[in-house]
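Q: Start with the shorter request: fold the first protein.
A: Done. Sequence, then structure:
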Amino acid sequence: MKKMTIPNRENVSTDNQSIFDNLDKAVGFVPNMYAFMANSPTALGDYLTLQNRKTSLNNKEKEAINLVVSEFNNCDYCKSAHTTIGKMMGYTEEQTIEIRKGTAIFDSKLNTLVTLGKAILSTKGEVSENIKADFFNAGYTTENLIDVVFMIGDKIITNYLFALAKVPIDFPLAKSI
């Protein structure tokens, strides 16, 4: 079986070298998941375009979706990365764990978002009318609904890459729940 590797800057395309340089400046390092994507000359750039697209969701809402999806798919890499980022966005450790479990009782509006996200995953999009009504009644819009699905798709990409390659985790490990 072919061993999957995490390339360094010298082993990637010129375009990916530029991305590595930008990541190093912005984050202070190139996360292993991004480096793994650089095994493809175009995947990393394409993924970052998706990840950094304009969205109607705020940063805390995006991290909530990232956390619930990563837990649902049991992606240790993404659970760890997004627990770290979630804390940077203002969540407590306990709140990140609650979100990963599929609720956010500490914030009723956010709870409807997390509930919807988990329901989309567990029903492959066949969400009950009640959950959708709760989402819209909380003040979310059709634009938000579409952006939630895009966020789920974004996170599934990295969750599945971790499942396939077991990319080494380079963030503090998220607590098990």
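Q: Next, the second protein, separately.
A: Sequence, then structure:
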Amino acid sequence: MTTVKDICRLIEQYAPPALQESYDNSGLLVGCPEEAVTGALLCIDVTEKVVNEAIELGMNLIVSHHPFIFGGLKKITGTDQTQQIVIKAIKNNINIFAAHTNIDCAANGVSSKMAQKFGLQNVKPLAPREQSLMKLVSFVPEKFAQNVRNALFEAGAGTIGNYDLCSYNSTGYGTFRAGENTNAFVGAKGELHAENETRIEIVFPFYLKNKIENALIASHPYEEPAYDFYLLENKWNTTGFGAIGELKEPMPTEKFLEKIKNIFNVPSIRHTDICKNEIQRVAMCGGAGSFLINNAKNANSDIFITGDIKYHDFFLAENQLIIADIGHYESEQFTKEIFYEIIQKKFPNFAVRISQTKTNPINYYF
């Protein structure tokens, strides 16, 4: 039996909740974690029509990108759209889950999916996360070092970019004297002891700290393991907002703009002056990405593709790159595909469907 919790955990393994911004409200918003799931309906926004669609399909879980509950709810009386959705969902046993900024900046997240649609090469985050990696240093008897390393790897430590099982090891010796109330693994009580040890250094994401610490203590032979945690200043180059990559071959700018329209199915593109004859280096951010304009310029991008650009933000291009606003919904629409791939990979026979309800509130008149 697949439960709501199973699907939520699966998505959160891909996009850990710890990666969401402080203002965000990702996670299970309505429902019961232990309830059996009859199917999952995937969408960008939760509206009452999406809830109706889930009811008609017999699917009791909605997975959305945008949390429909953002601020606090002090009462539920049906006086606004959010309250009406909550009431209808609860009455019909519909569970609602959202993954927002955590999947925006997760490895292979929203912007990376955009880059994939263009077939870009050498893709990496436009703004890698900082102060999000930690290092564990511990000292282990030489014969037990591999057991401890394996436990740490199993807990999620030791991944650097596309490499895993990474650690640095050096040998030396440690000294200690066991007190009367100890149960020393080696050495006699009251006597100075020297032990040949391996110094293990290993990197991991900050949100795994407790898990890594527990794994170390459980696998370490010493009664009192010696270890230190360090917060690193390094950029986490697989995780962060936006994406940047390169076309295999340069493309004339007007042809590339047509490519954008075709990929994202947009009728028009708001853009700055065409200051580049060709496009090769492409930066992008799903959703509202104006905060990354300077990152795109500093990365020598030819074009920056995003949504929700304000009038004055277009001036920030300064004729150094083209800013192309394709719309908020349009830039994030393929997030539904990410959800689909995550669930289908683990549960290939599970009922999952991309919503056919139009939730983009913006229309175009031709």
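Q: Describe the second briefly.
A: The first strand starts at residue 27 and ends at 30. Residues 144 and 235 are 32 Å apart (CA to CA).
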